[in-house]
Design brief:
heterodimer, A: alpha/beta, formyl-coa transferase, domain 3, 6-stranded parallel β-sheet, 3-stranded antiparallel β-sheet, 20 helices, 14 strands, about 35% helix, B: alpha/beta, Rossmann fold, 2 domains
Amino acid sequence: MAEVTWRNYKDNKNSRPAPLKGIKVLEIATLLLGPGGPGFLAKLGAEVIKCEMPPMGDTVRNLVPFGFFFREHGCGLTHPNLSKYWIGLDLHKPEGQQVFRDLAAKADIIEENMRPGVLEKWNVGYRQIKEINPGIIYISKNGYGQWGQYADENRPSNDGGSQAASGFAWMSSFPGKPPLKSRLYTADAYGGLMGEIPVLAALHYRERTGKGQYIELSQTESLMRTMSWVWPYQQITGKVAQPSGNRDQCVCPADTFRCIDDSFVAIAAPAPEEFNGICKAMGKPELAEDPRFKDHLVRLQEENAIAILKIISDWVKTLTLDKVIQTAEKYGFAASEIRSAKDITEDEHFRERGYITEIDDPLDGPMLNYDFPVMMSKTPPRVNWSVRPVGFDNEYIMANALGKTREEIKRLYECGALGKWADVKGRRPASTWDGKSGLILSREPGYTDGGRGE
Amino acid sequence: MERQPLAAWVRERDDPKIANTKPEALDDLTILDLSYNSYAGCYCSSLLSELGAQVIRIEPPEGDFLRTCTPYGLLHKKEGLVYLSEGRNKFHVTLNLKEEKGREMLKSLAAQADVLLETYHPGVMDDWGLGYEQLKEINPRLIFASISPWGQFGPRSKSKMPDYENVAQARGSIQYATGEMLPDGKSYDEYPWAVPTKAGPWISWASAGTFMAAGILAALFYRDRTGEGQALDVATAEAYANFDDWGVLIYQEHGYIVERFGNLDQGGWIYCFAPTRDGAVFIGGLRLEQWQAFVDMVGKWDEWGAADFKAIGDFMVKEAQLKWAPLVFAETRKYTNDELIEMSIKYGKEGRLAPITPVIAPVCNPMEAMTDANWLDRGLFTPVDDPVYGEVVVVQSQYKLTETPPRVKWVCRPVGYDNDFIYLKHLSLGPTRLKKLKETGVV
């Protein structure tokens, strides 16, 4: 039956409406935490207008890991910013503020991650916008929230600081070794997602009542929320929760083991039939009846857990990775190789599901990226296009959303409220750009300077 | 513009202390949570229950195995600690779906529900006659949400392997590239911790649950507008992997595979955890001047030639990071966390490059985080007074809303605790009828 529901899902993505069709989102955000949330909403079909400060735009354009560019822009820019519209808007200028307020009057959601108070100074804070649009849902994201000691101190915050302050990094390392920072900007990525739960819930509430609201999200608090057992554990035992490397303290056996060929494999087999399965697979079915291991709660006790993990480790050491995984499938426990970015990119399963999705972008060309990881049978999320240079969609947004004439647009450029990219790699279009591909409103030759008259 | 400072204005409206005086965004929803042995499922329904949804947890008569997943086997009043946190606000009933009568009762509940959440392997619900295609005939408005290891379709969806946090982490590309680097010429036997390392407690399952909660709410919006329900499909292998920001891009453009880089950061310098005399600090200074300020702060301005540093990009490349990191760490090891933080504040006031200074933050253990006055003030660890489990600290109020704030009303319930109330409320099953169903093993 599930086959009926999901038949040709990937091929039919564009034959169905997107779930947030008709929802308008304004973003004034930089780096990863702020743009991430609107990025998810864009994949869900919302129209997201990303406002950048011209001519340099989002600081994330500097994020060029190990110096690797992607189609001549920073790799860090792409992931949170797919399928958005890009305007270069200077909110220091009163004319720029007016443009924003005009857009905000028609918007459903505003997302921002400036320092507290900055947007009020620019006359576009929540208290000012709700006067012109009482139904607005307005979310501010940062490290420490909008009030409290750290907010009062105006502490700078970022992903690393949140991984450190939440206790998340402490719990992510080997015992007795220094706390480990994830390869991922976990606090940014997860905080970016977490904020969309209250945003979407507020949207439902607005559908019911017509009321908008203000939401604040701290990425540190978001990360703390994921660490659920840690807090009652500390309260009940009075002890500091300790890291345990790759071993899961709540599931036994569950750890990462080394195979004969020095590759690694993650294994988990806690439920009775799974544990019986791995004991049989090891040729030691009697272990499943061993009083130290028989019951999951007893098996989880430190010395018992270490004992069974040692037995499994000695067994895995004699096997190849493939053999371990085949055995797991056969005996009904869980095992996986530790997959790299290459493995993910080339994964046929992900391709067939349309999760690793092929984007055919007028600027970036053919490329692969992730779709939203919730498949929706009637309203499939999707990725339509890649990222854009600073201010790339100014003309389209001004004309389409605000009905500005070319003369009015020209004046906005002249006073500096609107702007386009600086002539800097990662800000400007790629050197291969033909001067018109991807432009929505005007494709006339000579229009590519955005009417600056240069 | 209003005169009250913004922080005070916001706090007056979204302080968790007054949450109970406000309406709830999702209190018109009924959610059936059939998830089994899945933190992803429980976490997902927790997020929705915090915002007011009535969540009915449907467990088999013996209870969910997840209740036994608890650190070192520790129980609090017979309950595992993971479940103690994620049973929050939910009603707990038992129902035997292996019995025809149990399946009939589930259909009756589904006819009245807005969302059904399940985590069985693809096909199990179908075989029970409880799949989306079958239930939508009863309730076309139903949002049918499935979380599974590989999803409902695609070649790997046939795998019968169970799903666990550590295995789901391994399937993303994050664990692969997280961890200490193995020093040249050394073996894993000498450095057993210099291996691909998973992160945090259950971030992968939490991510899958959070994505599904977002998907459910997006589907709800569509239903608000059209009246139509639908089926949703989350693969845990895809959810956490989705946070990879550039691994897949660098690989397709340059053929380069992102590898482990210890506590350094491939995307920036200086952006790392550094060891100290009594722990570790995070150092963040992505601008050249902040890096120079750090060098100056530890007294190496002349020796390291900071005046001649040209561009931060020169330090970002791998070789440079590997050269400079040990020098930096040798300096940070001379001080305590507090000393380094104090030094950076002082430098920001009096240093050669003031007000520029590196960001220095302590790497906290979770007890430090849990007793930090800032988080206590913001209501993160307010104990919940639970009628069954007493005063329990679970983390809450992770986001704050001025009109419809989240809240935790109770932390958990024993297996089948709410059978009487829920079956009476939804199926008009009073004590006499329910007793019969209990005797025949249906509930």
